[in-house]
User: Fold this.
Amino acid sequence: MIVNLQSVLKDAKDKKYAVGSFNVYNYETIRGVIESAKESQIPAIIAFGERYMENMDFKTVHAIVDTMTKEIDIPIVLHLDHCKFPENIFKAIRAGFTSVMYDGSHLSYEENLKNTKEIVEIAHATGVSVEAELGSLAGGEGSNEGAEDQNEIYTNPIQAKEFVSFTGVDALAVSIGTVHGMYKGEPKISIDVLKEIASRVDVPLVLHGGSGTPEVTIRDCIQNGICKINVNTEISVYTVEKIKELMTGEKTYHLSNISLKTVGYVKEIVKKYMSMFYR
Ligand SMILES: [Zn+2]
Assistant:
């Protein structure tokens, strides 16, 4: 069943676990996430970003997710990840997405505040949840979100409190030291900043850049208010590596077999993170 973000994050916040948000780009990745959720009996968020609209349109993504989740009883959220353009948010809502992320982190604080509030009003009228972002993540290796030279701007806890109460967002993505992509050196995550934000803000907090973050840090983040963790880069990096290994072997594969193997590789990463987040 497809549900909205608010419903799964409420349970996560109450019971102190995090729901994994896994980026999908095609049929194989969608199937990988849904089968992982079904086999592990753990809720999942299927995240599709506007940057992948050339790969699949929103209606097609929704049709696949809707069909594949009809028979399963574990909650699945269909979420629009990192969306800078309001027109794409409305398109996703019309296509049946149950959750959207408006990313106004490139705008001035005032503009981000105003746009987010408008989007929340429209989305809530149709029962769709909204995630927004304050602060800005740095870009890591192999990132497909933002540039590698992007600088880190930590979320300001005082601004976060005002932002959440003014806009009415359902979840807030915070910047505390994780990066989009793989870490270039040792990750420097500030649990202190997270604690400051969590003490002022009531809504579930979101951690972007989950790929490669050490398990101990993940546990610490979950204990201190993180209820949704995004994983993108590692799904791609791992799967591409495994396909490369296949290709260098003696055997020539039929494309249909590569598709099935891809689903399997995606599941390995998704299940690894699911069991790390859900404890
Ligand atoms: Zn992100």
User: Anything to note?
Assistant: Residues 82, 145, 180, 208, 230 surround zinc ion (CB under 6 Å). The first strand starts at residue 2 and ends at 3.
